[in-house]
Design brief:
Mean pLDDT: 87
Shape: globular
Protein name: ABC transporter substrate-binding protein
CATH superfamily of the largest domain: Periplasmic binding protein-like II
Strand content: 15-25%
Oligomer: single chain
Order of helices and strands: HHHHHHEEEEHEHEHEEHEHEHEHH
CATH architecture of the largest domain: 3-Layer(aba) Sandwich
Largest sheet: 8 strands, mixed
Number of strands: 11
Organism: Bifidobacterium criceti
Low-confidence stretches: 1-38
Structural class: alpha/beta
Keywords: Signal
Strand order of the largest sheet: 5-1-6-11-7-10-8-9
Radius of gyration: 19 Å
């Protein structure tokens, strides 16, 4: 891929103004325009629910805002618009809608993925960032389930490196730091080593866009991400990437709440359930083309994660 096309690809995923100067590739790319038009649902139409708003802890209610930590390179869940500063995506819309139900303005705080769990309850009120619910994470924070997604592998079109997900020994795997996919890739690496097979090289990136572009550039053989994120990245590359196999291990994702903050967790559960029941939740997901991951019940620390 040429340098010019590489820049256009990254811009489509995360916003040209964020990653490159305006002179690098312009803003007229059709896929960029389509990404900007995705959010057809007007979050401003969501109404405050007085009963649920009364459940919000007084310290948050009195502040007038709901602060939410997000890692803004995870399109279409959360990423920056072409201006390089405006958060957009289905998680962004859901966070804003939740704030509306509470009668609060939502403030999105840009964070690295691996810093969000430790910062919930101190740097911001909630973490909403396509985060898979795991037992390890539930030891650190409480969760309110709101979505489900699997994990998908993506390779260069035509799979020129002959990647086989049944045997990834000898492959270079690109992942985002702190994700369940990084954990799984490292488990594969250790298993290949234990079996005396070719080494796996795990290439972790702070940004999901970097993981995707490393495959396009040939730095990695395959990248591994949440299925809606991988699907969106593939759609933005035209004929550069393709999904390998189908989504694996579909599990629930959750809103992270400070461990033990039952009052806020119950408010988030009630607010998210309200959005599900009145249809706004599904309208948001459909606006971003990710309705396949919809669930119909928001639960605090669900026992069934599948």
């Amino acid at each position: 891929m040429s340098l010019h096309r590489m820049k256009k690809f990254v811009a489509a995923l995360a916003g040209a103004a964020l990653l490159f100067g305006a002179a690098a590739c312009g803003t007229s790319d059709e896929s960029d325009a389509n990404a900007e038009k995705k959010a057809a649902f007007d979050v401003a139409s969501v109404k405050k629910d007085d009963r649920i708003a009364a459940m919000v802890p007084k310290s948050i209610a009195d502040s007038g805002k709901l602060t939410v930590g997000m890692e803004l390179s995870y399109a279409p869940a959360e990423f920056l618009a072409n201006d390089g500063k405006t958060p957009q995506g289905y998680d962004v819309d859901l966070a804003k809608a939740l704030g509306k139900v509470f009668g609060l303005d939502t403030e999105i705080v840009s964070s690295t993925f691996d810093s969000i769990v430790p910062s919930v309850g101190s740097k911001y009120d909630l973490g909403i960032t396509a985060m898979t619910i795991t037992q390890e994470r539930m030891d650190a924070v409480d969760f309110v389930s709101y979505y489900k997604a699997g994990s998908s592998w993506a390779v260069k079109k035509g799979n020129p490196e002959h990647v086989n997900t049944d045997d990834l020994c000898g492959m270079k795997i690109a992942v985002q730091v702190g994700t369940t996919q990084e954990e799984e890739a490292n488990e594969i690496k250790e298993q290949c080593k234990a079996d005396g097979k070719k080494d796996v090289e795990v290439l972790p990136s702070k940004l999901q866009t970097d993981a995707a572009t490393s495959v396009v550039s040939g730095k990695a053989d395959v990248f591994y991400a949440d299925s809606p994120v991988a699907g969106y990245a593939i759609s933005q590359t035209g004929d550069e990437l393709e999904e390998l196999g189908s989504a694996e291990g579909v599990v629930k994702q959750g809103v992270a709440v400070k461990k033990g903050d039952t009052e806020l967790a119950k408010a988030v559960q009630a607010g998210m359930q309200h959005l599900m029941d009145d249809g706004d939740y599904m309208k948001i997901l459909k606006a971003w083309g990710v309705e396949n991951g919809a669930i119909d019940k928001a639960e605090i620390n669900p026992t069934d994660l599948g």
